[in-house]
Amino acid sequence: MNTILHIETATKNCSVALSRNGKQVALVEKFSMEYSHSEQLHGFIQQAFEKADLNLSDLDAVAVSKGPGSYTGLRIGVAAAKGICFALDLPLIGVNSLQVITENYQPLSNEILFPMFDARRMEIYSLVLNNKKEIIRETSAEIITEDSFMDFDKDKTWVFFGSGAEKCKSTISAEHIKYVDDIQHPSASGMIPLAEKAFKESAFEDLAYFEPFYLKEFFTPSPKKKK
Residue ranges of the chain with pLDDT lower than 70? Predict the structure, then answer.
């Protein structure tokens, strides 16, 4: 039986979960506009263990959201995860934060998923997945324009969700695009299936060198050539 601690701090939602054999046994989280992760995270970890009636010594691994997301939030989460792993000699699992939020949505067969986080101004972090939640375009940072994502199949339904989707509404509009407004931020509960898969495959991070996945460079698609 494996027990994994999950830490999600990529956005304004500070979230901690515990799982045993891929099943959630505790969840503690709070959304805050003030990004109060530094004050909340360690208390949330303690509360999660109390809820699950477990101890740190029961852990087999620690999973942490590795980004993209808030620079400060990611650093706080990764520092906590690495500290526990170093202290207890545990493996570390890094999980893409945009994949985490995707776990909140069950796609139909004709859908392409576009989870996205708000960055700044008209900038977003995004990932693109097929209906099986397989990545078809890796995480990228980009400036939203009317030509964004135009390389993808328009015969399928594009599903936009996450805190960055709101920025697209005024710029990208078409019959094949669906906005899901009630999925905004990732939760540690969404990390569980991803971390469980990584644990079974022994897909662990190099603890000494692991750093959050920061996306600092934004690109703007080249303008279309006039005919």
Answer: 35, 215-227
Amino acid occupying residue 198: A
CB 20 within 8 A of CB 3: yes
* pLDDT for position 227: 46
Rounded to a whole number, what is the distance in angstroms from the first to the last CA of the chain?
Answer: 62
* Closest-CA residue to 40 (of 218, 209, 196, 188): 188
Report H helices in 129-191: 165-169
Q: Looking at residue 218, what is its pLDDT?
A: 43
Domains of the chain: 3-98+186-200 (3.30.420.40), 105-180 (3.30.420)
User: What are 196-217's pLDDT values in tens digits?
Assistant: 999 999 999 999 999 998 765 5
Reading the block at residue 90, the tokens are 């545990």
Question: Which residues lie below 8 Å from residue 44, measured CB to CB, with a gap of 6+?
Answer: 14, 15, 16, 28, 29, 30
Q: CA 152 to CA 167: how far, in whole Å?
A: 19
- Tokens, residue 58: 């029961």
CA–CA separation, 125 vs 105, rounded Å?
18
C-beta neighbour count of 87 within 10 angstroms = 9
Residues 95, 65 contacting (CB under 8 angstroms): yes
DSSP reduced 3-state for 134: coil
**In 10 A of CB 47, how many CB atoms?**
15
Peptide bond into 68 cis (omega under 30): yes
Please give the Cα distance from 117 to 125 (Å, whole number): 5
